Amino acid sequence: MLMERDFVEYVAKSLVDEPDNVEVNVIEGEKSTILELRVAADDIGKVIGKNGRIAKAVRTLLNATASKTGKRVVLEILD
Fold it and tell me: What is the CATH number of the domain that holds 29?
């Protein structure tokens, strides 16, 4: 799941004003992996996007890459 973590971190750092505050925590389970994304309070809107479009796009790409491993990947954006 290192590839997925790196992907989320790269995308988040590209979107936010404070890339040093981007933090991705990985929680491994048997059938799924949870990626917790934390960014600065001012940058949450930039990661989510209008009507959640950016978050949805990132989740779609994550699920596409994770389908190769047969595991489910969940992205949680924490505030």
Answer: 3.30.300.20
